[in-house]
Specification:
The chain is an all-alpha fold and 307 residues long. It has one domain. 78% of the residues lie in helices and 0% in strands. The chain starts with a helix and ends in a 5-residue tail after the last helix.
C-alpha cells in the first residue's frame, strides 16, 4: 500500500474511534464506527491470499450486521423517547439490542464466531489492531449506557465469554487463534464487571491491551505463528521468547503479574455485592483458560536446549 493510502487509512481509523468516543449522539457514534470499519478493511485484505479475502468478508459482514442492529436500536429508542442522546437509552428493547450489537462488534460470546477466523486470516499486526484498538469505540459506548443495561444480560454474556474463551483456546496450535480466544476470555471479565463497576471494566481492558501489544509485536519480530514455531524461537532470540512466556502468564491473571490485579479487583467487587456463585464461576473458567497459557509457557521454558 502506498504511503498516501496508509496515511488516509490510519487517520480514518483514529478519527473514527475518537469520533465515537467523544459523541453524545447515536448517529455520530454510528458514523464513527462505520468510518473505522471501512478504513480497516483494506488492511485486513492486504495479504494477497484467499484466507485474507475471506477474513475481510467475514469482518465486513459481522460489523455491518452489528451496525444495522445499532441503528435499529437507536431509532426505536428515538421513536419512543424523542431523543437521539446516547445517555437517554431508556427503552428496554433498544438497550438489549444495542448491547448485543456492541458485543458483536467486540467479538464477545455468544456472537464471537468471526473473531478467531478473522485473526487467523490476517497478519499479526492486523490481529493486534483488531484485538486492541478496534475494541475501544464499542467499549466506550457500552460504558456510557452501562447504567441502563440489565445486569443479568451483562453477567451471563461475561460468564459465557469466559467459558468460550477458556475452552476454545485449549485445543489451538495456531497462536493467532489462541490470542483470539484469550481476547474473548478477557472481554468476558470486562463485560461481567461492567454491570457493577464500569470504571473497573475500563481499567481491565486497558491493562489487557498493555499486555497484548508486546506479545503480538514480539511474535511479529520472531515471525512466530504456531506453537511449533515457538519451540524453536529461543535459538534466535532468548530474551524475546522469555518475555512472551512471562507476558502470557500475566495475561492469564496469575499472581504476582500485572494481569492479576484487575481480576482480583473484579472478584472483590463480586463478593462485596454478594455474588459469590458468580465469583466462583469466574475463578473456575479462569483456571480453564490458564491451561492454554501454561501450555505455551511450558513449551517455551521446558523445551529449551541443555545449554
Amino acid at each position: 500500500i502506498n504511503p498516501t493510502s496508509i496515511t488516509i487509512i490510519t487517520l480514518s481509523i483514529i478519527m473514527g474511534t475518537i469520533m465515537t468516543m467523544s459523541s453524545s449522539n447515536w448517529l455520530m457514534a454510528w458514523i464513527g464506527l462505520e468510518l473505522n470499519m471501512l478504513a480497516i478493511l483494506p488492511i485486513i485484505s492486504k495479504p494477497k491470499t484467499t484466507r485474507a479475502s475471506e477474513a475481510t468478508i467475514k469482518y465486513f459482514l459481522t460489523q455491518a450486521i452489528a451496525s444495522a442492529m445499532m441503528l435499529l436500536s437507536s431509532t426505536t429508542n428515538a421513536w419512543q423517547t424523542g431523543s437521539w442522546d446516547i445517555l437517554e437509552l431508556k427503552n428496554k428493547f433498544s438497550t438489549t439490542i444495542m448491547t448485543l450489537s456492541l458485543m458483536m462488534k467486540m467479538g464477545a460470546a455468544p456472537i464471537h464466531f468471526w473473531l478467531p477466523e478473522v485473526l487467523q486470516g490476517t497478519t499479526l499486526q492486523t490481529a493486534l489492531l483488531i484485538t486492541t484498538w478496534q475494541k475501544l469505540a464499542p467499549i466506550s459506548l457500552m460504558y456510557m449506557i452501562s447504567n441502563n443495561i440489565q445486569p443479568a444480560l451483562l453477567m451471563s454474556a461475561g460468564i459465557l465469554s469466559m467459558i468460550v474463551g477458556g475452552l476454545g483456546g485449549i485445543n489451538q496450535t495456531q497462536l493467532r487463534k489462541t490470542m483470539a480466544y484469550s481476547s474473548i476470555n478477557n472481554l468476558g471479565w470486562t463485560i461481567m464487571i461492567m454491570a457493577l463497576s464500569p470504571n473497573l471494566a475500563v481499567m481491565n481492558i486497558f491493562i489487557y491491551m498493555i499486555m497484548t501489544t508486546p506479545i503480538f509485536l514480539m511474535m511479529t519480530s520472531t515471525s512466530t505463528k504456531t506453537l511449533q514455531n515457538l519451540t524453536t524461537t529461543w535459538t534466535t532470540s532468548t530474551a524475546t521468547t522469555l518475555s512472551i512466556a512471562l507476558l502470557m502468564l500475566s495475561t492469564s491473571g496469575l499472581p504476582p503479574f500485572t494481569g492479576f490485579l484487575p481480576k482480583m479487583l473484579a472478584l472483590n467487587e463480586l463478593i462485596t455485592q454478594k455474588l459469590t456463585t458468580l465469583a466462583t464461576l469466574a475463578i473456575m473458567t479462569s483456571l480453564v483458560s490458564l491451561l492454554f497459557y501454561l501450555r505455551i509457557t511450558y513449551l517455551i521454558m521446558v523445551l529449551t536446549s541443555p545449554m
